[in-house]
């Protein structure tokens, strides 16, 4: 090993002794052209200290080396310069003292800024290294650059600075289907004081305390502040749409030093209503600023952070414009360098009806859970209620750390958008899938007669399963099984499908939209779980048993879904027999109402069932409400609507409580509205969730929600 290395070491020593690569200093440029090229190359490499070495002695008297470096770094940052390219141009007198060139500055914000420029050069005696034997200092003539600020930008001079003026465009608004405001840039009145205008501090404190309703110590602290006396000190921001007389009472206090300013803020006129859908804005973080600064953002700016405000931020925000210019020491614009026009944000119109949303939230009350309301004709979302909620306006005015912690640490998870993100076992609302799989794949027909005993022993006595009722309901068709929500009927249907193909029931569930994202645009959602033999082996490490299919047949076991997935499946059942993506965003428009994009619900797949099977499912859902033997008939007695629906109660041992559901659509002959309630804890979907759904459907079809302001 040592013998092998010896020649290599010798070669290395020889290379060093001979001044090998990397050890020789770069030769100084010999001509004006070489000097200019060296200077511009160093600029491209951002070697500002070495650039300064090529600056003339006279120019160095006007700017120190550290200031030279700072200026180039500051301009690079301010102008968002990422790189540059240059080309030397023929000079009037080759070899002379002026070198022309074209430089292209590549910027993150303004794009390319190309300028034709020139630099003046001169020859100077430059001291050279000396040795002990040298009796006199050595010098050599070298070319140096008569540097001036205009070599950075032609428009720059000794007095001016480079400044980036950001132009923030109008942020688009979010509106409901009828054009009602959900999230907009609105003008609000900000009440404040200016100390210079106050002649009687005690009178100001007394009047402002009485008018604002704020604590006297808080007002006193504002009046007695230690900021410069000409500062405007905000005291209170009035709500968007405050009555003119409310604003006027503060304007009438002008002699007390009270000042009213109109400011544009992001406003959510409906408060907590639809908060999870609309979302909110927050100040950008330091990490976000690294990416956003080149786009014209600065510390303290706000961006969408949740809901549609977050996911559609780029659409709503548009593109910031800007002006790169030189400014005088007094702050006025001297000369323009580059400009990029701002692009206004676009408006987003939703399929949500804020009146239906508020009615739905009122019905949900303070039950932890969610309600989904859809129009099955076009698969549009009318409402997505979730409780608990939050007020997005709080994020605009600014939450204290304590307030944010209280919301974040609430065990009920106010930020969780339950219609799309809460996944639970589905219970009996899943039985429509089992009916479809049993009839289409399990050897049953829509007229098959299936026994509904109190105890089912289809997998053997040792695996006996109880029905939720203790009476023998006799023999039922699949549709009648839905009516009675008879577990043994669906045990048999699931067993038959699984005997035919272990993937028959899971695949049918997926064709109804379970186990996959619904594809709703603009909001985050969960996919839920549809178990099958491969999933169980991969995730549980166990083989698939027939009991897994039987358990899944009544919406128990490993299967989970979101409320939106369930509602979307029933929307397909109720109207078209085709699974579609839920429609939330109706259109995106340019400023002024010009239509930019119009959206419709996209087809996912037709339900893989025959017309006869689909009719049997619909018949069973109708019997749930209209037959004396239906599980929810009592809750719909005397209803003004002709509805069909299904209840569900799901056991969830891991969660520690049952989940209850009720889904219904109306009217049966021509469904135009569908609603699903999912309560996180409960005992009976029929008793607890069905009344909520009945009230919503009746109010909607009676037109009671349309006339509300």
Polypeptide structure, described:
- The protein is of the alpha+beta class.
- The chain has three domains: 27-127 and 139-158, NTF2-like, domain 1 (Nuclear Transport Factor 2, Chain: A, Roll), CATH 3.10.450; 174-348, Penicillin-binding protein 2a (Domain 2) (Alpha-Beta Complex), CATH 3.90.1310; 357-701, DD-peptidase/beta-lactamase superfamily (Beta-lactamase, 3-Layer(aba) Sandwich).
- It is 33% helix and 25% strand.
- The protein is built from 25 helices and 27 strands.
- Strands 6, 7, 8, 9, 14, 22 and 23 form a seven-stranded mixed beta sheet that branches. It has a five-stranded antiparallel beta sheet with strand order 16-15-27-26-25, sandwiched between helices. Strands 1-2-3-4 form a four-stranded antiparallel beta sheet.
- A hairpin with a 5-residue loop joins strand 22 and strand 23 (595-598).
- Helix 6 packs across helix 7 (216-223), helix 18 packs parallel to helix 24 (611-626) and helix 19 crosses helix 22 (546-552).
- The longest helix has 17 residues, at 685-701.
- The N and C termini lie far apart (91 Å).
- 39% of the residues are buried.
- The model is unreliable at 1-23 (pLDDT under 50).
